Amino acid sequence: MIKQISLAVALSWAAGVAADPVPLQPTAAGTAPDAILGTAGEPLGESVHYFPDDPQTIGYLAEPAGPGPHGAVVLIHDWYGLRDRIRQTADALAAEGYVALAADMYRGRTGSTPEENRPLMMESLEDPSVMVRNLDAAVSYLKARDDITGKVAAMGWCYGGGVALSFALGSENHEGTAIFYGRLVDDPERLKSIHHEIYGTFGQMDTRPSPEEVHAFVAAMRAAGIDNDVHIYDDVGHGFWLYVEQDPKNRLEPAIDAWDRLKAYLERTIR
After folding, report:
1. pLDDT at 15 over 50
2. Is the pTM of this model over 0.85?
3. Which of 52, 178, 185, 239 has its CA 20 to 30 A from that of 161?
């Protein structure tokens, strides 16, 4: 059954914590955040309305401690929707010193099986202009704050990775894009509209996208003159970074390396 989050529930869920920064410590080099290990506690941020066009769209905001200025990140969920794993990852980014806004592409709904997720995903992809307006609104919400650097990156996983790339192609309102296994483009002419460095993390055992598709994407970015930091990790497949606990023996080491690369990417692009 597809889960619908009512406005009353979403707002009451954040009651009592809305004004507080996320009281977490940044990760040391060579360690992974609890969010991707499956050991994080309850999300610590707040629910927010950031998309004026649609009152059913409710995002999640995690704020760092300190006065800033901070870089800012828009997180785009995987095909399950905006669930706690994404909120916890936003908290982890806030602990690193970023204002993190997890966008809602499913209008308050989530799924838990392919049968539930697929119609939500397809519905959200029917009108790309709405998708771009949603994310542009998230970026504008962040840039209206007086405690950020003025620079925002978008990042996503699987469905959200493809959406992050589509957003980079369809908007000039942000300064970074991080893709964790998602739908790719191999046409240099289409990619020429991107004017910032692209980060990408993929698995050698994945088929969505396959390593061959990743290589074609990198070749197209090079032809288009786009700086990029893309890595294909051995012995892991789809979803390895966000759900390390499903196969820690194979996933932990590449997940830590991808996290360290992501932190370095955000540092040089939006800090």
Report:
1. no
2. yes
3. 52
